[in-house]
Design a protein that fits this description.
Helicase, Ruva Protein, domain 3; Phosphatidylinositol Transfer Protein Sec14p; 2 domains; five-stranded mixed beta sheet; 13 helices; disordered C terminus; CRAL/TRIO_N_dom; SEC14 cytosolic factor-like
């Protein structure tokens, strides 16, 4: 950390000392005691421009207060079968830790159908995992490894990816916007594995939706990426889809059965997350009733990005002929 960055952190901290009390309270929940690291994350996201970083951080805190994000880990997704449906169609899990102690999150991009629940349920689940990571997983890792650990590694599995997945671009844009604006610089690197031939077309659609700083962190690895990933993590921390010799029969190996599947609701990460939220809700319910309704986040998808994505989708699908006409759905983002 250079002199300029230290000075920027100092200036941003001074500005944050003057925010309103509700924002201060949410800020404490946001940084979890890692104040300097949190300030630097927002500064990195805005190229160390203090005024822009301050605006970004204040906007984030306002978003948290308006949408009661600080209480989201007390709000289970009801009923239980809806939560299971979310887990079965929004594939994510914690497979282990890197050699540096960073949590390794596996995301099944290709096999995530995102069609078993409504948008609000998927958004709620995504934010809950973010918050559980920030409030529980990262502080626990910091304690275990004896140093500040405030970032993670993500491995994106493209097994089973089809062009029809482009129909989920609105939801994916919402989730990426949430992360860009409110959880900046939480991921050190993104590794893409098991990329099929249609990946290039999907990438043309998704790439413009991502912030430039995010794109710089993305690496596409050959095959299942096992050899490259073993340079930064032990074999035991590899996701199940990176342990096979090849991507053949990948659908079977990425199914929802088996103790090695890090996506499974029965795996420790999801069991701990589920029980944590359940316990928090019970403690809260003893003090105040919990409203068991749909979760809504006030976040607008950038119109310019959405229109551009829709045009790219149409262009890419036409390359594959009229047989894919059913995929040319009328997206709500247009």
């Amino acid at each position: 950390m250079g002199i300029n960055s230290q000075e920027a952190i100092k200036k941003l901290k001074a500005l944050m000392d003057h925010v309103d009390q509700p924002l201060k309270k949410s800020f404490q929940n946001l940084h979890q005691g890692f104040l300097t690291e949190t300030l630097e994350r927002f500064l990195k996201a805005r190229e160390y421009d203090v005024s822009k970083a301050h605006k970004m951080l204040v906007d984030c805190l306002k978003w948290r207060v308006e949408n009661e994000i600080d209480k989201i880990l007390r709000k289970p997704i009801f009923p239980a079968d809806v939560y299971r449906a979310v887990r079965d169609s929004q594939l994510v899990g914690l497979s282990g830790y890197s050699k540096e102690g960073l949590p390794v999150f596996a995301i099944g991009v290709g096999l995530s159908t995102l069609d078993k629940a409504n948008v609000n349920d998927y958004v709620q689940s995504h934010i809950q995992i973010n918050e559980y990571r920030d409030r529980v997983v990262l502080p626990s890792a910091s304690k275990k490894y004896g140093r500040s650990i405030t970032t993670c590694v993500k491995i994106l599995d493209m097994t089973g990816l089809k062009l029809s997945a482009l129909g989920n671009v609105k939801l994916l844009t919402i989730l990426s916007t949430i992360d860009d604006l409110n959880y900046p610089e939480r991921t050190t690197a993104y590794y893409i594995v098991n990329a099929p031939y249609v990946f290039s077309s999907c990438w043309k659609v998704v790439k413009p939706l991502l912030h430039e700083r995010t794109k710089r962190k993305i690496q596409v690895l050959p095959g299942c990426g096992r050899d490259e990933l073993l340079k930064i993590m032990d074999y035991s921390s590899l996701p199940h889809f990176c342990k096979r010799e090849s991507s053949l029969s990948s659908s079977r190996s990425s199914g929802h059965q088996g103790s090695q599947n890090c996506y499974s609701l029965d795996q420790p990460f999801h069991q701990q997350l589920y029980n944590y939220i359940k316990q928090q809700s019970l403690m809260t319910e003893a003090v105040e009733p919990i409203r068991k309704g749909s979760f809504h986040v006030n976040l607008q998808v950038p119109v310019s990005k959405s229109k551009g994505a829709a045009k790219t989708i149409e262009s890419e699908l036409r390359k594959y002929g009229s047989g894919l006409s059913d995929t040319l759905i009328e997206l709500e983002i247009m």
